[in-house]
Design goal:
Blueprint (H helix, E strand, L loop, with lengths): L1 H13 L1 H14 L3 H17 L1 H17 L4 H28 L1 H8 L3 H33 L3 H26 L3 H26 L2 H24 L1
Amino acid sequence: MKEFLYLGFGGVVAQCEWVFWEAVGLLVGSLGVVSLSVHTIPNQTIMTFCMIPFSFGIALAIRMGISLPISVKRTKILVIFVLFFSMVVFGLVSIGVYIYRRSIVALFTSNQEVQELAELIFVKVALFNFNIAIFAILAGIATGLGKQWLLGIINFIFLWIFGLPIIYYKSIVCDGGLNAVWYWMNIPYLGMNITLCILFSYLDWYKIQKQIINNENNNNNNEEEVEEE
């Protein structure tokens, strides 16, 4: 129960990323109706597309939970394969998001002013779609390794301590507008992705495997004691 609560609360902290999206939406609202209308288009589009990589990440975490106690080497190969496969697939999806940007925008509005502003930001939108897809896979890896607290701390630092203040400063104080919002939304996610990749490469996976096996043995011993009683 203690381990469950520890990982559970870590997962809650990690989900502050979703709250960050809402906070950015509130910030964009102060830029005016047109900016908010434009922001809604990629926001809803990416929210839909990113469900796929987040599903990949969840499936990978479950598979890692099965594979890691058996073989660290096999688990690492699986992680590397899924990560590079996802980079190719979601890289192509992101290219498609940019190529078909006008069709995507046309699904939401025919307003000329909204379409013109959307045209300015869609390169950054496509990059963000790729960044968040890779983050979704890395979040799954963190969960599979039982590093929810590490993920949550990294999220909080990059998104709330760095990301939101710099977005506010560049978009409102410096009058960069929605273009600055989407540019600076990419930077924290890029930073999180690089940081997570570096940390995963330096983590002792064999130590994590040993901890999992020890926990399983302890649970089995406790169950045997209960049955004997």
